[in-house]
């Protein structure tokens, strides 16, 4: 490879996928910085990347809202649009997977050697580095907590009357669709039982998750906070770094929590943990598939949502309790 002064990375368009691509992006950044004399590394994509990037551990990487005129770009999205935008920005070397009628725009149109239908997405992204002969030393996701983030999370908890040493976070939503979501009443049972043991729940999510959060919290009288819809992504990430346990669906926040080493418990049903399970040292996945699992659909079309019904609240509570005990700080 020739010397590259300015490298551009375009991560995937979903938070969870961006986290799963982190080992590949880290390897690319380290290789270009160490061996090719790269002085600038830019990361460009969705606006939320500005807040996630400090956690990604990409040496020297800086977020940019607009595509800069770099020397080389690695395109993790498979879209035609991503390739066209980089070509229009005057970037001479474009590297990414072929497909979406964009092969003629790419300098290196890589073949799809990893099957997303049966293999893990993390391996799919890592194969971009592998095909470019870039050494990968760390294949697991390993996020880092930016300076001051955990302290900010503790301050926010305390401002809402919580003991930051007793906080558990619950993220009951999933942007992809309701088929991935564990029933609110099931979460309610788990959260109420944990509250009786003096654990203090914080609900994370978007504005549309607030009402579900209210159902989950119910009539809890001990300290709690429904933060869904009232915190930015930056603030939610700070809360995750400071919590003792993350209970959530298969979602972007799940991947962040696991990658940070936060004890993470997740029920899987509509999606396949063989393909999208989180990477981290303290992860517990509950998967008891129904005949229709994994359907990979946004909405469940089977009465009773059987893949989630197969995971009882008691099973979920036991997993949370065990994780708290085993990962006690």
> CATH homologous superfamily of the largest domain, by name?
Glycogen Phosphorylase B
- The run of helices and strands is EHHEHEEHEEHHEHEHEHEHEHEHH
- Which stretches of 5+ consecutive residues score pLDDT under 50? none
How would you state the average pLDDT, rounded? 94
| Major beta sheet, strand line-up | 3-2-1-4-5-6
The N- and C-terminal alpha carbons lie at a distance of 45 Å
* C-alpha-based Rg, rounded: 21 Å
Q: What is the CATH architecture term of the largest domain?
A: 3-Layer(aba) Sandwich
Number of strands: 12
- CATH C-level name of the largest domain: Alpha Beta
What do you see in this structure?
By secondary structure, this protein is of the alpha/beta class. The protein folds into two domains: 6-131, Rossmann fold (3-Layer(aba) Sandwich); 152-326, 3-Layer(aba) Sandwich (Rossmann fold), CATH 3.40.50. 35% of the residues lie in helices and 16% in strands. The chain has 13 helices and twelve strands. The chain has helices at residues 15-20, 22-35, 49-52, 80-88, 121-131, 149-159, 184-196, 210-217, 233-242, 252-259, 273-276, 306-309, 313-326, and strands at 6-10, 40-44, 61-64, 72-75, 93-97, 108-110, 167-171, 200-203, 225-226, 245-248, 264-268, 283-287. The strands form two sheets. The chain has a six-stranded parallel β-sheet with strand order 3-2-1-4-5-6, sandwiched between helices. Strands 9-8-7-10-11-12 form a six-stranded parallel β-sheet, with helices on both faces. β11, α11 (273-276) and β12 (283-287) form a beta-alpha-beta unit. α2 (22-35) runs parallel beside α5 (121-131), α6 crosses α9 (233-242) and α7 packs across α8. The longest helix has 14 residues, at 22-35. It is globular and about 60 Å long. The N and C termini lie far apart (45 Å). The mean pLDDT is 94.
